[in-house]
Amino acid sequence: MCSKIATNVEAEQSDCSSLNLDFMIIGAGKSGTTSLYGYLLRHPGVFLPELKEPEFFSRGEVYKRGMQWYASLFCDAPPGVLRGEASTTYSRWPHTLDAPQLIQEHTTTRKFIYLVREPVARAYSHYRHHMRDKVTMTFEQALQRDEIYFDCGDYMMQIDRYLRYFEADDLLVIQNEHLQKKPQDTLAKVQSFLGLEERDLTAAGVERRNLGEDDYALRYKAKRLMQSLPGAMALKSRIPQSWRTAVFDRLRRTRFAAQVREENQPSPLLPETKKALSARYEPSVRRLEAFLQCDLSHWRCH
């Protein structure tokens, strides 16, 4: 089981003790944050660092690098644009540092975007992601050994942590299925929340990043191969996303891809596991319904 991490980490900080930052995408992991990050990169009024997940306020080893390191991620931001970042580990309490407390202490951020997804599907996707290199346990074993799979889908527990330091109006909660099925309407809501001039962020195509859950292992091995080639990662940043997607689609149809899938088959989501986990999430889902004043009955296991 993952040990709970102490929150009052002492870090050697530079003189740069506070950063003017406009917003953060705080999670939840496996709920569409990468797609939202891609959409917001298209807006001329937004700057997001190339490092999608700095994890500065959630991981002790990163936090110890100091505010000067963190501020350097935003030094290329043009004047007048909104500056933000996206780290899904900012909503993994209590398995990380107390991210909302540290954010409140060190930044001016008062806008948080939190994507949520049907929690059982999110937990299973999280498990599959962790098994992408090698399958070492079943989903049921993973749930027993590490509470992180459950806790990241206990959305109200994560929201409660932010409400200790921020107001409810500082938080925009987006359902993953809305971003997928009605991207224009959802992105209009995001832009309004951030105070941006509304743009059609889907004009260049619909973002469909990290949706191929059957290909977690293939994506992982392809990335590892790229990292081993000199200059490949630098070249990657110059290649349009559409080209990279097309190349990966070709790779998915190769014999190599079939072999990777065969060798990295995680355990299935069993109906009895889904039902039990859905029941365990029910109190949190009911609280989220009350907080958002919406109906989440489509999340329930029938």
Automatic annotation (TrEMBL):
Family annotation (SUPFAM superfamilies): P-loop containing nucleoside triphosphate hydrolases
Keyword Transferase: yes
Record's signal peptide: none
Sulfotransferase domain location: 22-197
Molecular function via GO: sulfotransferase activity
Keyword line: Glycoprotein, Transferase
Transmembrane segments: none
Gene3D superfamilies cross-referenced by the UniProt entry: P-loop containing nucleotide triphosphate hydrolases
The protein's name in its UniProt record: Sulfotransferase domain protein
Source organism phylogeny: Bacteria, Pseudomonadati, Planctomycetota, Planctomycetia, Pirellulales
